[in-house]
Fold this sequence. Notes:
The chain is 10% helix and 39% strand. The protein is mainly beta. The strands form six sheets. Strands 19, 20, 22, 23, 24 and 25 form a six-stranded antiparallel β-sheet that branches. Strands 3, 4, 6, 7 and 8 form a five-stranded antiparallel β-sheet that branches. Strands 11, 12, 14, 15 and 16 form a five-stranded antiparallel β-sheet that branches. Strand 9 and strand 10 form a beta hairpin. The N terminus is likely disordered.
Amino acid sequence: MLQFSELNKVMEADTISKNGLSSKSQMSRNFLDTINRGISFVIILFMVAACGEDTPNPEFPLEIPTGVTATLNGDNVTITWNRVKGAQSYDIFLISTAFTGKLTVALNVTSNIHITKYVYEGDNYYFVSAVNQSGSTELSDPAYIKYTPNGGNNGGGGTSVSAPTWVTASKTNSSGPFNISWSAVSGATSYKVYRSSNEEDYNINNCENETYYQIGSSSSTNYTDNNLPNGWNYNFYKIKAVNNAGESNYSPCSNYIVSNVQGGGGGGTTNPCKPSVSGSITFTTLYANFYFSCTVSNVVVDVWNPKTSSWKTLSTLSGSATSYSISPYRDYMNTTNVNDPYYYFVKVRITGKNSNGTGDPSYIYYDILTGGVDYD
Length: 376
Protein backbone atom coordinates (compact mmCIF):
# COMPACT_ATOMS: atom_id res chain seq x y z
CA MET A 1 0.00 0.00 0.00
CA LEU A 2 1.39 3.35 -0.98
CA GLN A 3 2.03 5.85 1.73
CA PHE A 4 0.57 9.35 1.43
CA SER A 5 3.99 10.88 0.62
CA GLU A 6 4.58 8.34 -2.13
CA LEU A 7 1.10 8.87 -3.60
CA ASN A 8 1.74 12.59 -3.69
CA LYS A 9 5.00 12.05 -5.61
CA VAL A 10 3.20 9.85 -8.17
CA MET A 11 0.52 12.53 -8.70
CA GLU A 12 3.10 15.26 -9.11
CA ALA A 13 5.09 13.16 -11.57
CA ASP A 14 1.95 12.40 -13.55
CA THR A 15 1.09 16.09 -13.98
CA ILE A 16 4.39 17.06 -15.62
CA SER A 17 3.76 17.96 -19.25
CA LYS A 18 6.10 17.54 -22.10
CA ASN A 19 7.02 21.23 -22.19
CA GLY A 20 8.01 21.16 -18.56
CA LEU A 21 4.84 22.87 -17.18
CA SER A 22 2.37 21.14 -14.95
CA SER A 23 -1.16 20.69 -16.24
CA LYS A 24 -2.30 22.40 -13.04
CA SER A 25 -0.34 25.52 -14.01
CA GLN A 26 -1.63 25.31 -17.57
CA MET A 27 -5.24 25.02 -16.34
CA SER A 28 -4.77 28.04 -14.10
CA ARG A 29 -3.44 30.10 -17.00
CA ASN A 30 -6.37 29.02 -19.22
CA PHE A 31 -8.84 29.93 -16.48
CA LEU A 32 -7.32 33.40 -16.00
CA ASP A 33 -7.27 34.01 -19.75
CA THR A 34 -10.98 33.19 -19.90
CA ILE A 35 -11.77 35.55 -17.02
CA ASN A 36 -9.75 38.37 -18.60
CA ARG A 37 -11.51 37.94 -21.94
CA GLY A 38 -14.89 38.08 -20.19
CA ILE A 39 -14.00 41.25 -18.31
CA SER A 40 -12.76 42.89 -21.52
CA PHE A 41 -16.01 41.98 -23.29
CA VAL A 42 -18.13 43.48 -20.51
CA ILE A 43 -16.06 46.67 -20.56
CA ILE A 44 -16.51 46.99 -24.33
CA LEU A 45 -20.29 46.51 -24.01
CA PHE A 46 -20.44 49.16 -21.29
CA MET A 47 -18.45 51.64 -23.41
CA VAL A 48 -20.68 51.06 -26.43
CA ALA A 49 -23.81 51.60 -24.35
CA ALA A 50 -22.40 54.71 -22.69
CA CYS A 51 -21.52 56.28 -26.03
CA GLY A 52 -24.86 55.57 -27.69
CA GLU A 53 -26.24 58.60 -29.55
CA ASP A 54 -29.80 58.00 -28.31
CA THR A 55 -28.92 58.16 -24.62
CA PRO A 56 -30.57 61.30 -23.16
CA ASN A 57 -28.44 63.60 -21.06
CA PRO A 58 -30.52 65.17 -18.29
CA GLU A 59 -27.76 67.68 -17.55
CA PHE A 60 -28.62 69.60 -20.74
CA PRO A 61 -32.39 70.22 -20.92
CA LEU A 62 -34.06 71.41 -24.10
CA GLU A 63 -34.19 75.10 -24.86
CA ILE A 64 -37.59 76.78 -25.19
CA PRO A 65 -38.42 77.34 -28.90
CA THR A 66 -37.79 80.86 -30.21
CA GLY A 67 -38.74 82.83 -33.31
CA VAL A 68 -42.35 81.66 -33.33
CA THR A 69 -44.40 83.29 -36.11
CA ALA A 70 -48.02 82.91 -37.24
CA THR A 71 -49.17 83.94 -40.71
CA LEU A 72 -52.81 84.02 -41.78
CA ASN A 73 -53.52 82.63 -45.27
CA GLY A 74 -57.25 82.71 -45.93
CA ASP A 75 -58.75 80.66 -43.09
CA ASN A 76 -55.51 78.78 -42.36
CA VAL A 77 -52.63 79.77 -40.11
CA THR A 78 -49.02 78.81 -40.87
CA ILE A 79 -46.91 78.53 -37.71
CA THR A 80 -43.11 78.45 -37.87
CA TRP A 81 -40.31 78.47 -35.29
CA ASN A 82 -36.59 77.89 -34.90
CA ARG A 83 -35.49 74.28 -34.48
CA VAL A 84 -34.31 73.26 -30.99
CA LYS A 85 -31.17 71.12 -30.64
CA GLY A 86 -32.04 67.71 -29.18
CA ALA A 87 -35.79 68.03 -29.81
CA GLN A 88 -37.55 64.99 -31.28
CA SER A 89 -40.88 66.73 -31.88
CA TYR A 90 -42.93 69.80 -31.04
CA ASP A 91 -46.35 70.44 -29.49
CA ILE A 92 -48.44 73.47 -30.50
CA PHE A 93 -51.09 75.19 -28.36
CA LEU A 94 -53.56 78.04 -28.80
CA ILE A 95 -55.07 80.57 -26.40
CA SER A 96 -57.86 82.73 -27.84
CA THR A 97 -60.31 85.35 -26.68
CA ALA A 98 -63.00 83.16 -28.26
CA PHE A 99 -62.80 80.55 -25.47
CA THR A 100 -61.33 79.88 -22.03
CA GLY A 101 -58.39 77.61 -21.36
CA LYS A 102 -55.70 76.29 -23.70
CA LEU A 103 -56.39 74.37 -26.93
CA THR A 104 -54.04 71.67 -28.25
CA VAL A 105 -53.45 72.46 -31.92
CA ALA A 106 -51.05 69.59 -32.73
CA LEU A 107 -48.78 67.09 -30.98
CA ASN A 108 -45.63 65.26 -32.14
CA VAL A 109 -44.89 67.66 -35.01
CA THR A 110 -41.46 66.67 -36.35
CA SER A 111 -40.72 69.72 -38.54
CA ASN A 112 -40.54 73.40 -37.59
CA ILE A 113 -43.61 74.42 -39.60
CA HIS A 114 -47.27 73.55 -39.16
CA ILE A 115 -50.45 74.65 -40.96
CA THR A 116 -53.69 74.62 -38.97
CA LYS A 117 -57.35 75.58 -39.32
CA TYR A 118 -57.53 76.37 -35.61
CA VAL A 119 -58.16 80.11 -35.73
CA TYR A 120 -61.04 81.94 -34.07
CA GLU A 121 -62.63 85.35 -34.34
CA GLY A 122 -60.69 87.82 -32.25
CA ASP A 123 -57.21 87.47 -30.75
CA ASN A 124 -55.30 84.19 -31.20
CA TYR A 125 -51.98 83.37 -29.49
CA TYR A 126 -49.97 80.36 -30.67
CA PHE A 127 -47.32 78.70 -28.46
CA VAL A 128 -44.75 75.95 -29.20
CA SER A 129 -43.09 73.46 -26.81
CA ALA A 130 -40.08 71.27 -27.69
CA VAL A 131 -40.21 67.57 -26.74
CA ASN A 132 -37.81 64.65 -26.37
CA GLN A 133 -37.65 61.50 -24.23
CA SER A 134 -36.66 63.58 -21.21
CA GLY A 135 -39.86 65.64 -21.33
CA SER A 136 -41.15 68.91 -22.79
CA THR A 137 -40.13 72.54 -22.38
CA GLU A 138 -42.17 75.46 -21.13
CA LEU A 139 -44.24 77.24 -23.76
CA SER A 140 -42.53 79.68 -26.12
CA ASP A 141 -43.38 83.34 -26.40
CA PRO A 142 -46.62 83.57 -28.39
CA ALA A 143 -47.17 84.41 -32.04
CA TYR A 144 -50.28 86.55 -32.53
CA ILE A 145 -53.07 86.56 -35.12
CA LYS A 146 -56.20 88.72 -35.11
CA TYR A 147 -58.91 87.02 -37.14
CA THR A 148 -62.07 88.58 -38.57
CA PRO A 149 -64.31 86.11 -40.49
CA ASN A 150 -65.37 87.44 -43.92
CA GLY A 151 -63.32 90.52 -43.24
CA GLY A 152 -60.60 90.17 -45.84
CA ASN A 153 -59.25 86.85 -44.59
CA ASN A 154 -60.44 84.76 -47.54
CA GLY A 155 -58.28 84.71 -50.64
CA GLY A 156 -54.99 85.75 -49.14
CA GLY A 157 -55.74 87.01 -45.64
CA GLY A 158 -54.73 90.63 -46.22
CA THR A 159 -51.26 92.12 -46.22
CA SER A 160 -49.08 91.95 -43.12
CA VAL A 161 -47.72 95.22 -41.76
CA SER A 162 -44.17 96.23 -40.98
CA ALA A 163 -42.99 97.36 -37.57
CA PRO A 164 -43.14 101.08 -36.69
CA THR A 165 -39.92 103.10 -36.36
CA TRP A 166 -38.75 106.30 -34.69
CA VAL A 167 -40.40 105.65 -31.34
CA THR A 168 -39.81 108.57 -28.98
CA ALA A 169 -40.89 109.26 -25.40
CA SER A 170 -41.17 112.68 -23.77
CA LYS A 171 -42.48 114.12 -20.50
CA THR A 172 -43.40 117.33 -18.77
CA ASN A 173 -42.43 116.01 -15.31
CA SER A 174 -41.23 112.74 -13.77
CA SER A 175 -44.64 111.77 -12.37
CA GLY A 176 -46.23 111.75 -15.82
CA PRO A 177 -48.04 111.66 -18.05
CA PHE A 178 -45.54 110.54 -20.72
CA ASN A 179 -46.14 111.16 -24.42
CA ILE A 180 -45.17 108.41 -26.89
CA SER A 181 -45.04 108.89 -30.66
CA TRP A 182 -43.87 106.85 -33.65
CA SER A 183 -43.85 106.76 -37.44
CA ALA A 184 -46.99 105.76 -39.33
CA VAL A 185 -47.09 102.33 -40.99
CA SER A 186 -48.83 101.85 -44.33
CA GLY A 187 -51.81 99.49 -44.02
CA ALA A 188 -51.98 99.65 -40.21
CA THR A 189 -55.42 100.13 -38.67
CA SER A 190 -54.21 100.53 -35.08
CA TYR A 191 -51.15 100.21 -32.86
CA LYS A 192 -50.34 98.39 -29.62
CA VAL A 193 -48.18 100.17 -27.03
CA TYR A 194 -45.75 98.26 -24.78
CA ARG A 195 -43.62 99.42 -21.87
CA SER A 196 -40.68 98.06 -19.89
CA SER A 197 -40.02 99.53 -16.44
CA ASN A 198 -37.01 98.74 -14.31
CA GLU A 199 -35.67 100.24 -11.10
CA GLU A 200 -32.08 99.66 -12.21
CA ASP A 201 -30.14 102.03 -14.46
CA TYR A 202 -30.11 100.47 -17.93
CA ASN A 203 -28.69 102.38 -20.85
CA ILE A 204 -30.18 102.38 -24.32
CA ASN A 205 -28.11 99.37 -25.42
CA ASN A 206 -29.91 97.11 -22.96
CA CYS A 207 -33.49 97.94 -23.90
CA GLU A 208 -33.91 95.19 -26.51
CA ASN A 209 -33.39 92.52 -23.82
CA GLU A 210 -36.05 93.88 -21.45
CA THR A 211 -39.50 92.34 -20.89
CA TYR A 212 -42.33 94.44 -22.37
CA TYR A 213 -45.99 94.51 -21.33
CA GLN A 214 -48.88 95.95 -23.32
CA ILE A 215 -50.26 99.07 -21.63
CA GLY A 216 -52.72 100.26 -24.27
CA SER A 217 -53.55 100.79 -27.93
CA SER A 218 -54.06 103.72 -30.27
CA SER A 219 -55.62 104.38 -33.66
CA SER A 220 -53.15 107.23 -34.25
CA THR A 221 -49.37 107.50 -33.98
CA ASN A 222 -49.47 108.93 -30.45
CA TYR A 223 -50.21 107.58 -26.99
CA THR A 224 -50.36 109.18 -23.54
CA ASP A 225 -49.13 106.98 -20.68
CA ASN A 226 -51.00 108.04 -17.55
CA ASN A 227 -50.42 104.87 -15.51
CA LEU A 228 -46.77 104.87 -14.55
CA PRO A 229 -45.41 102.37 -11.99
CA ASN A 230 -44.73 103.46 -8.42
CA GLY A 231 -41.26 104.53 -7.40
CA TRP A 232 -38.20 105.44 -9.42
CA ASN A 233 -38.10 103.62 -12.79
CA TYR A 234 -36.32 103.68 -16.14
CA ASN A 235 -38.97 103.22 -18.86
CA PHE A 236 -38.69 102.07 -22.48
CA TYR A 237 -41.47 101.78 -25.04
CA LYS A 238 -42.09 99.59 -28.11
CA ILE A 239 -44.93 99.64 -30.63
CA LYS A 240 -46.62 97.01 -32.82
CA ALA A 241 -48.69 97.84 -35.90
CA VAL A 242 -51.96 95.94 -36.38
CA ASN A 243 -54.35 95.20 -39.26
CA ASN A 244 -56.77 92.40 -40.17
CA ALA A 245 -53.87 90.16 -41.24
CA GLY A 246 -52.28 90.25 -37.81
CA GLU A 247 -49.68 92.36 -36.10
CA SER A 248 -46.10 93.37 -36.82
CA ASN A 249 -42.98 92.58 -34.89
CA TYR A 250 -41.89 94.96 -32.15
CA SER A 251 -40.54 98.32 -33.18
CA PRO A 252 -37.07 99.30 -32.00
CA CYS A 253 -37.19 100.51 -28.41
CA SER A 254 -37.63 104.16 -27.59
CA ASN A 255 -35.24 106.38 -25.71
CA TYR A 256 -35.39 105.72 -21.98
CA ILE A 257 -37.36 108.09 -19.78
CA VAL A 258 -37.19 108.28 -15.99
CA SER A 259 -40.32 108.27 -13.84
CA ASN A 260 -40.58 109.03 -10.13
CA VAL A 261 -44.10 108.36 -8.91
CA GLN A 262 -44.89 108.53 -5.20
CA GLY A 263 -48.12 107.46 -3.50
CA GLY A 264 -50.63 106.91 -6.24
CA GLY A 265 -48.83 105.23 -9.09
CA GLY A 266 -49.56 107.85 -11.75
CA GLY A 267 -53.26 107.01 -11.84
CA GLY A 268 -53.90 104.35 -9.23
CA THR A 269 -52.04 101.33 -10.58
CA THR A 270 -51.90 98.04 -8.69
CA ASN A 271 -48.99 95.61 -8.46
CA PRO A 272 -49.67 91.86 -8.87
CA CYS A 273 -50.88 89.84 -5.90
CA LYS A 274 -48.84 87.25 -4.01
CA PRO A 275 -49.34 83.72 -5.41
CA SER A 276 -50.48 80.61 -3.57
CA VAL A 277 -47.86 77.88 -3.99
CA SER A 278 -47.32 74.15 -3.49
CA GLY A 279 -44.67 71.63 -4.54
CA SER A 280 -43.45 68.04 -4.58
CA ILE A 281 -40.19 66.10 -4.99
CA THR A 282 -39.11 63.05 -6.95
CA PHE A 283 -35.63 61.53 -7.20
CA THR A 284 -34.79 63.66 -10.22
CA THR A 285 -37.24 66.57 -10.31
CA LEU A 286 -38.70 69.36 -8.18
CA TYR A 287 -42.27 70.41 -9.06
CA ALA A 288 -43.65 73.89 -8.30
CA ASN A 289 -47.34 74.80 -8.59
CA PHE A 290 -48.68 78.33 -8.25
CA TYR A 291 -51.94 80.25 -8.53
CA PHE A 292 -52.61 83.98 -8.76
CA SER A 293 -55.99 85.37 -7.67
CA CYS A 294 -55.25 88.46 -9.78
CA THR A 295 -54.21 88.99 -13.41
CA VAL A 296 -50.48 88.75 -14.12
CA SER A 297 -48.61 89.09 -17.40
CA ASN A 298 -45.63 86.95 -16.43
CA VAL A 299 -44.53 84.54 -13.73
CA VAL A 300 -40.85 84.60 -12.74
CA VAL A 301 -39.31 81.43 -11.27
CA ASP A 302 -36.07 81.96 -9.31
CA VAL A 303 -33.90 79.49 -7.39
CA TRP A 304 -31.43 80.29 -4.60
CA ASN A 305 -27.86 79.53 -5.68
CA PRO A 306 -25.86 78.69 -2.51
CA LYS A 307 -22.57 78.92 -4.42
CA THR A 308 -23.09 82.61 -5.25
CA SER A 309 -25.48 83.45 -2.37
CA SER A 310 -27.90 85.04 -4.83
CA TRP A 311 -31.15 84.33 -6.65
CA LYS A 312 -30.93 82.90 -10.17
CA THR A 313 -33.80 83.29 -12.64
CA LEU A 314 -34.66 79.92 -14.17
CA SER A 315 -37.55 81.05 -16.35
CA THR A 316 -39.98 83.87 -17.09
CA LEU A 317 -43.30 82.21 -17.93
CA SER A 318 -46.51 83.54 -19.43
CA GLY A 319 -49.16 84.79 -17.02
CA SER A 320 -51.33 81.74 -17.71
CA ALA A 321 -48.67 79.30 -16.43
CA THR A 322 -49.51 77.36 -13.26
CA SER A 323 -46.55 75.00 -12.85
CA TYR A 324 -42.82 74.56 -13.41
CA SER A 325 -40.35 71.70 -12.96
CA ILE A 326 -36.63 71.80 -12.11
CA SER A 327 -34.37 68.95 -13.22
CA PRO A 328 -31.63 68.33 -12.30
CA TYR A 329 -31.61 70.26 -9.03
CA ARG A 330 -28.52 69.06 -7.16
CA ASP A 331 -26.52 72.19 -8.07
CA TYR A 332 -28.99 74.23 -6.01
CA MET A 333 -28.88 72.12 -2.85
CA ASN A 334 -27.53 73.98 0.16
CA THR A 335 -24.59 71.77 1.21
CA THR A 336 -22.20 74.51 2.35
CA ASN A 337 -23.18 74.85 6.02
CA VAL A 338 -24.39 71.91 8.09
CA ASN A 339 -25.63 74.30 10.80
CA ASP A 340 -27.89 76.17 8.38
CA PRO A 341 -31.59 75.36 9.11
CA TYR A 342 -32.00 74.93 5.34
CA TYR A 343 -29.08 72.51 4.99
CA TYR A 344 -29.77 70.17 2.03
CA PHE A 345 -32.75 72.30 1.01
CA VAL A 346 -33.56 73.88 -2.36
CA LYS A 347 -35.29 77.27 -2.17
CA VAL A 348 -37.53 78.47 -5.03
CA ARG A 349 -39.17 81.89 -5.40
CA ILE A 350 -42.34 82.58 -7.45
CA THR A 351 -43.19 86.18 -8.40
CA GLY A 352 -45.89 87.76 -10.56
CA LYS A 353 -45.35 90.73 -12.88
CA ASN A 354 -47.53 93.06 -14.89
CA SER A 355 -47.18 96.50 -16.47
CA ASN A 356 -47.53 98.13 -13.05
CA GLY A 357 -44.56 96.35 -11.51
CA THR A 358 -43.55 93.26 -9.54
CA GLY A 359 -45.67 91.70 -6.78
CA ASP A 360 -44.66 90.13 -3.48
CA PRO A 361 -43.03 86.69 -3.96
CA SER A 362 -43.95 83.34 -2.44
CA TYR A 363 -41.33 80.73 -1.51
CA ILE A 364 -41.16 76.94 -1.71
CA TYR A 365 -38.64 75.04 0.45
CA TYR A 366 -37.72 71.52 -0.69
CA ASP A 367 -36.14 69.27 1.95
CA ILE A 368 -34.08 66.86 -0.16
CA LEU A 369 -33.18 64.56 2.76
CA THR A 370 -36.75 63.91 3.95
CA GLY A 371 -38.74 64.68 0.81
CA GLY A 372 -40.80 67.28 2.69
CA VAL A 373 -41.97 70.57 1.22
CA ASP A 374 -42.73 73.82 3.07
CA TYR A 375 -44.13 77.16 1.90
CA ASP A 376 -43.96 80.82 2.75
